[in-house]
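Worked example (supplementary).
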Amino acid sequence: MNNLLTRLPTEPEVEEELRLHIDLLVSENIQRGMSPEEARAATLKRFGNIDRVKNECVEICRRNRPLQRAFKIFLMLLALAGLIIKITSTDFHVARIGGVFILVAVAARLLLYVRSLTPSRFLPRNETSSFTIFR
Amino acid sequence: MAKDRTDLMQGTLELLILKTLERESLHGYGIVQRIHETVEDLLKVEDGSLYPALYRMQERGWIKSEWGLSENNRRAKFYKLTRTGQKQLERERANWERVSKAISRILQTA
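After joint prediction of all chains, the assembly is encoded as:
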């Protein structure tokens, strides 16, 4: 359930996160007395293969996307089913079940929407990857 | 006497991350720093290996993340333990204690 409701990070977000770590490591090495070049080399050695790490993280996020898409379709169908039940049913209790379907579907969809908005406001615009300086 | 650095055993990185996040939310660099401070160079954690582990743990619902500002005012993703993560930490801790006890017994008798 967590995978369905969690906002999945995008590739620029993964890059942003790794970039901060690398920059902090470089600063730490410079503070220890290394030259910028030495600091970058030491950072690369300590961090490991940046591209491999980035691709692995992106892949983990990517494999949950089809699941989330399927969940959104399920919510749409649930709302539709609820609507049909509500319109066609003459029994009050059955119509109420239709109402619950609609409510659950709308609430879950809203939650997904809100979660997709929250972290993106921190994302930089038009930033390019700084990984190129290490390649 | 020089201390031998030991590479981290498979699966223990997650336990270390869970334990580190038990007290406070931290970004990736902060997590590695805290682990290194605690183990005093006895274990080697490759910084890059942390992130796939964090993403997998988030996928399992053990931790959650939130963007915020780091101590030097840069955007940073902070990780926090969830209730599921807290339970997982207890399970992992119990498992670790059982395994280390078993290995110690074997080493003592052999």
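Two points are worth noting when inspecting this output. Strands of chain B lie at 6-7, 26-27, 43-44, 63-69, 75-81. The two ends of chain B are 26 Å apart (CA to CA).
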